[in-house]
Amino acid sequence: MGPDELFQRAMIARRYYLEGRTRIQIADELGISRFKVARELDEAVASGMVEIKIHDPGSIDVALSSALQTRFGLQHAYAVTSADSGDRVDAVTRATAELLQSVLRDGDVIGVDCGRTLARIADHLTTLPPCDVVQLTGMAGAITHNGADLVRRISEVSGGTPWPLYAPLVVSDARTAASLAGNQQIQDTFARYPRVSCALVSVGAWTQGASQVYASLSDAEVREFTTGGVCAETCALLLDADGHRLPGLDDRRMGIDEATLRAIPTVIALATGAEKIAATRAVLRSGMVSALVTDSEIAAAILG
């Protein structure tokens, strides 16, 4: 490649990564196609011209991250260390936000689950390419923890269309779920699920305070599922300790189905806190996620 081509690649990379311009804006400025812009950006990263790094209050444990990625065949794996356990959630969500900003491209569609940790990602997002944002599961818990609020906040950064899901995470019976699924707004959101290219999902541990699903059920239902071997959930899809799916809520949950979730090219799971060690292992064993951002305590325990 000649110096003119290298100069153009460097200029495209600068416009995109440092000046925050979109691929379309760069293509119009330089009189080239947006597909060429995308290729040049990919080559800039592949050649080492551009290095994408995640900076957070803690740091990335490279050895643990690499071991996680290899053991579970992940696209991305980050084990985040933090000197203060109180900063753990902030460090993990900051790392996730920066990962999201580095992997998204124009026209991607972001899917989001619900969860307290997940909700804090938006605090760290500064710029995103134009992307629609779709809520993957119904609402549970406080307004600041539900997927609808996160969809709104991320779409404000991306400038894309928000597709909320105004329905409970878990309903009382299959008949109620079917009735809600007939609502036009809910159908419109469901129709976007096959278009999702990057999803953010939580890891729920089967214990009080560590799962939105757990908190949505009666004591009797919790005991029944515990006896049935439930260890974890993600997107309200129940799993045993080996990552096998347990179908107990399939006709009562509102959200993306397992097959559609598995078809998403990039599914990033978040997990923090020792109470989620077994659940994180189960979610990884399930094969439903392709990336993980977690704290070093969970990472070390999973690999131990």
UniProtKB/TrEMBL annotation:
<dbReference type="GO" id="GO:0030246">
    <property type="term" value="F:carbohydrate binding"/>
</dbReference>
<comment type="similarity">
    <text>Belongs to the SorC transcriptional regulatory family.</text>
</comment>
<dbReference type="InterPro" id="IPR036388">
    <property type="entry name" value="WH-like_DNA-bd_sf"/>
</dbReference>
<keyword id="KW-0238">DNA-binding</keyword>
<feature type="domain" description="Sugar-binding">
    <location>
        <begin position="62"/>
        <end position="303"/>
    </location>
</feature>
<keyword id="KW-0804">Transcription</keyword>
<dbReference type="InterPro" id="IPR051054">
    <property type="entry name" value="SorC_transcr_regulators"/>
</dbReference>
<dbReference type="InterPro" id="IPR037171">
    <property type="entry name" value="NagB/RpiA_transferase-like"/>
</dbReference>
<dbReference type="Pfam" id="PF04198">
    <property type="entry name" value="Sugar-bind"/>
</dbReference>
<protein>
    <submittedName>
        <fullName>DNA-binding transcriptional regulator</fullName>
    </submittedName>
</protein>
<dbReference type="GO" id="GO:0003677">
    <property type="term" value="F:DNA binding"/>
</dbReference>
<dbReference type="InterPro" id="IPR007324">
    <property type="entry name" value="Sugar-bd_dom_put"/>
</dbReference>
<keyword id="KW-0805">Transcription regulation</keyword>
